[in-house]
Amino acid sequence: MVSGEPELGEKRPPGYRAEPDLLQEAKSELADAETPNGSAPGSLPEVRLTRRRWAIVFLFSAYSFCNAFQWIQYGSISVVFARFYDVTPFAIDWLSMCYMIVYIPLLFPVAWLLDKKGLRLIALVGSALNCVGAWVKTGSTKPHLFPVTVLGQVVCSLAQVFILGMPSHIASVWFGSREVSSACSIAVFGNQLGIAVGFLLPPVLVPDVEEKEKLAYHISIMFFMTAAVATALFILVAFVFKEKPPHPPSRAQALIHTASPEEYSYLQSIVRLFRNVNFVLLIVSYGLNTGCFYALSTLLTRMVLSHYKDEQLNAGRIGLTIVVAGMVGALITGIWLDRTKTYKQTTLLVYIMSFVGMVVFTFTLDLGNIWVVFVTAGMLGFFMTGYLPLGFEFAAELTYPESEGTSSGLLNVAAQIFGIIFTISQAQIFEHFGTQAGNLFLCSFLLVGTVITAFIKADLRRQQANLRDEQTRLQGSNSQIMNYGHCTLIPSFPIPAQ
Question: What's the Rg (C-alpha) of the chain?
Fold first, then answer.
């Protein structure tokens, strides 16, 4: 029984009071502990979501869309561009591969800028370069101006360096723990949609006509449309895109905000990442899968036309099918991860199905029924393209609290390196041994990537940080309530001596 409290059933003397409503005070103080004004020094700041997060992720997705469209717009009609500029198809392939080549040496400077200067600067530079590259291309609509279109494509590839590493970073900085994987999928969604439209739209806008004057007219329409969209998106980024929300969106972000200030070393961060065995395995497996996708996207039109003559439009539609199916896969896997947090199991299953899809696509490509190619390409795209946001989110879990921009950047470097190797190798195999041998070449590396993925340990550090903080907070709340429940009630009048 609480000291000084009257026996059950006794009348309390006039003037008697408990020292005032202590349990109510406890609740009030605990509530204050979760607000910024009532928080004690060193406690975590308030966790709160803001509506602007959706504008941020969709705006990023939009200018990523525009940049990805410019990557594949040459490859989807490579034969037409090769004839217009009077160059070889391999020279047109390099317009896609320059995206991969430029990314590799510039990743680390851009990732350092992301850590030092934040999201807004990177978004502004990326959208500005994308806009400038698009306008440079508008000046290359004559057959002798191939170097100008190369310059424009190189500028767009510079923009890509400021785009590819952003999805997981935007998701972590702006979104709560229960929606971070879905947000990452939406951010990647724009890039995939850009590739899809890049397969679909150029064959429609630039028909395969013989007269170069007519070709120049159609190419200029495509280039000016792209430049107008890129300009509008840059203006939106300048006015809408913000650095970060006023409050951290998750406990993991709050922990990062309140960590003891130390001298940050970007080099030490890289060293720690490469000492993380699970992350290194993910780098290799992600690079193999995404490198296969890059090679497949770059060479798809040539691959289809080698078996189905005069099917330029359908070749673009097959590419569209691959990417649209992948977007659906990415959204489904993102929602699934937010609900289940089964990163390792989901990643491994999607990787296995990517390998199976590639094998099926390889052995059905030459059956003579193009509708079969649509079906098998859709199945392949659902898993292979759907894997892209999975890798970003799995990396963020394995490497927390390191910067998501750095971890996803390293994944992208591996993807670019393998993409260059696979594109050049597969193109040569096509010429000497046929498309089936080239696709079996990719199948073998997807099998290797599946085995590597099986050896990755599910060390989900970001989830553990969220859970630990939640448990600590609940234990602290329960402890304070119990202490208040055992306090002494003090009468407001003197008690006579017994």
Answer: 29
Half-sphere exposure of 321 (CA within 13 A, CB side): 19
Backbone angles phi and psi of 179, in degrees to 5: -135, 5
| Average pLDDT by stretches of 10, the chain with 498 residues | 43 45 40 40 68 90 93 87 90 88 86 83 94 96 94 94 84 83 80 86 87 92 96 94 82 65 65 90 94 88 85 83 85 81 88 94 89 92 84 84 78 89 90 90 95 88 70 60 49 44
Three-class secondary structure assignment of the chain: CCCCCCCCCCCCCCCCCCCCCHHHHHHHHHHHCCCCCCCCCCCCCCCCCCCHHHHHHHHHHHHHHHHHHHHHCCHHHHHHHHHHHCCCHHHHHHHHHHHHHHHHHHHHHHHHHHHHHCHHHHHHHHHHHHHHHHHHHCCCCCCCCHHHHHHHHHHHHHHHHCCCCCHHHHHHHHCCCCCHHHHHHHHHHHHHHHHHHHHHHHHHHCCCCCCHHHHHHHHHHHHHHHHHHHHHHHHHHHHHCCCCCCCCCCHHHHHHHCCCCCCCCHHHHHHHHHHCHHHHHHHHHHHHHHHHHHHHHHHHHHHHHCCCCCCHHHHHHHHHHHHHHHHHHHHHHHHHHHHHCCHHHHHHHHHHHHHHHHHHHHHHCCCCCHHHHHHHHHHHHHHHCCHHHHHHHHHHHHHCCCCHHHHHHHHHHHHHHHHHHHHHHHHHHHHHHCHHHHHHHHHHHHHHHHHHHHCCCCCCHHHHHHHHHHHHHHHHHHHHHHHHHCCCCCCCCCCCCC
For residue 323, what are its two tokens?
């990417």
What pLDDT shows up at residue 257?
60
The pLDDT assigned to 45 comes to 66
Q: What is the pTM of this model?
A: 0.67
